[in-house]
Amino acid sequence: MDQIVAKMVSSFIQLLVSTFAVAGVSAIHITAPLNQTYDYIIVGGGTSGLTVANRLTENGKHTVLVIEYGNLVNDPSILVPANTLSFAPTPERYFNFTPVPNPGLNNDTTSPLAAAIVGGSSAVNGMFFDRGSEADYDAWEALGNKGWGFKDLLPYFKKSVTFTPPSEDVADKYNYTWDVEAAYGGHGEIQVSFPPYQFPGQNRLWDAWKEIGVEKPKEAAAGNAIGSIMAPSMVKVGGTEKSVVKARKEVIVAAGAIWTPWLLQRSGVGPKSVLEGAGIAVKKHLPGVGANFQDHPFGGSVWNWTTNPYFPTAGALATNQTFYAEAEKEYTQSREGPLTTSRGNQAAFLPLKTVDPEGWQALVDAVAAQDPTPYLPAQYDETLIAGAKAIHNITAEYLGRDDAAAFEFTFAEGPIGNAAIMRPLSRGTVNINPSDPASGPLVDWRTFSNPLDIKFAVQMVRFSRRFNTLSSFSGLGAVELSPGSNVTTDAAIERYLRSTMDPTFVHMAGTASMLPEELGGVVGTDLKVYGVGKLSVVDASIVPYLPATHLCTTVYAIAEKAADAIKARTGWAE
Predict the structure, then answer these.
(1) Measured between alpha carbons, how far is 264 from 8 in angstroms, rounded to an integer?
(2) What's the Cα-to-Cα distance from 34 to each of 254, 355, 517, 573, rounded to whole Å?
(3) CA distance 160 to 152
(4) pLDDT tens profile 271-309
(5) 245/256 Cα distance (integer angstroms)
(6) Contact residues for 473 (Cβ-Cβ < 8 A; gap 6+)
């Protein structure tokens, strides 16, 4: 077993050396001489990996090696919330490779925004710090993962953060509400609060949500993430040598939903057909490695207010140098003003009934009646098909419920248009390249491979048309720029969406799912990889069913729960 573990770590270090051209970042820097043996080895210094490392070093008794591809960024601008409004200035903080062409999106090759940086996605995300509803995590338990329902995860959600309420004046001004006892109360290292500034014009949006009957929960993070919510925000190389190190207690993989399956497959753990096709000896046949790949497809329509009395807008930070200079001065002097806002902390998580009040039942019936098998990846075996059917049945149930969101509509100070599908039926894969296993992974989104998903996307466009013409927006001259009011049939809207939607909301998950092995699972409820001994996975790849939320807080909770499990089984206190 030690040989397998050592070979896996060696393979990962080879990954660091062999994919420089793919990733487009500098070479690995070993910051200290390597020991031959550590108590724990963590592969990946991102959100989950660093959280687990922090917990495993709490008592000062154990050695922990964290292996990370990306650089440690000391640029202070990474801490400025408004810089999350754009990915453009910092492409070096992300991996750069081209996925498999996506037929469902006219052969689009959008690259996943996988972070190549110490801190992982938590260092580059939009700081939207929300959680899914109780139903989202109870689905995990319903899939055979006892101990992973909402009530089990809530203590870890709480443990990971320290919540600081905003001032009374700020709370009153922006109608911030919260419930510390129900949702927070922990003392974790992640600092969470509400920003002290919101752009003008947002009140029109809140009025419109009320007009259409969508309520704002007092505290969405306590398990009721349905309605229009205001979420808090999260504050925050060279050589070609190979090294072999061993773990006394456990190797912990935290490389993320894209790189974790790649690493496992490179090390001989994965689908036999994929491994043999790449000439890799099979150490453990696990069909689920690289399967069940999920994300929230994102897109929709584009709207504008022709008469907009509100200034400034978020866009002015990029277009108005004078305004940006004033905002920068205010941020530097007092940590207040427009630069304290991130990519957004306002969104409406809506059930299907709200978005499609007339046709929702027909869509639910279509999902319930469908056999998903013909639309699954060709590499799926009978265990993966069984798992996919179990998840499909839960989706059919949740689409008819009032406490489970089917869509997320992001909003700020202007008209809404874009949304994300929270319950996609389509599934993709992440595999090694059989012709060049050392190159970057083959990411196959397979967006809209299940034909029912595009039907849900059409409803996003239709809902935007209904919402943006509410009386709350009277006098603003709302105009649909695309697809345009002349595009009216479902078929025409579908064509538009296939040419404009993004396959990802940067919520990649599922590629090493926590499921029973007979349902295509890769790890059990203890997060140990089936049949490989002292090896576990602690990142978003273990998520069996994507919750209707942004993933950051969920990954923190997974890591906190994983750390407790690892401590308990490895004699950490000794």
Answers:
(1) 8
(2) 20, 55, 36, 24
(3) 14
(4) 999 999 999 999 999 999 999 999 999 999 999 999 877
(5) 21
(6) 204, 208, 305, 415
Q: For residue 190, which of 163, 210, 215 has the smallest C-alpha distance?
A: 163
Tokens encoding 445? 């989104």
Question: DSSP state, 428?
Answer: B
Mean pLDDT for the chain?
86
Distance CA 373, CA 174 (A): 48
- Structure token digits, residue 49: 């990996």
Three-class SS state of 191: strand
Q: Which two tokens stand for residue 161?
A: 């953060």
pLDDT of residue 320: 86
Amino acid sitting at position 59:
N
Tell the burial category of 78 from Cβ atoms under 10 Å away from its Cβ (0-12, 13-18, 19+): middle
Residue 66 pLDDT > 70: yes
Question: What pLDDT does 15 receive?
Answer: 43
Which pair of structure tokens corresponds to residue 500?
């404009």
At 523 the three-state DSSP class reads: strand
The number of C-alpha atoms within 13 Å of 522 and in the hemisphere containing its C-beta is 31
Instruction: Mention every residue, 6+ apart, whose C-beta is less than 8 A from residue 474.
Output: none
Whole-number Å distance between alpha carbons of 349 and 353: 12
How far lies 365's CA from each of 395, 422, 489, in Å?
Answer: 11, 18, 22
The one-letter code for the residue type at 460 is M
If you average pLDDT over residues 225-250, what whole number do you get? 73
pLDDT tens digit string along 308-359?
A: 777 777 778 778 889 888 888 888 888 888 887 765 678 999 999 999 999 9
Widest CA span in the chain = 70
pLDDT of residue 77: 54
Cis omega before residue 516 (within 30°)?
no
Residue 26 has pLDDT above 50, yes or no: no
pTM, entire model: 0.88
Tokens (6 digits) for 565: 């499990």
64-67: strand order across its sheet: 64-67, 37-43, 246-253, 535-537
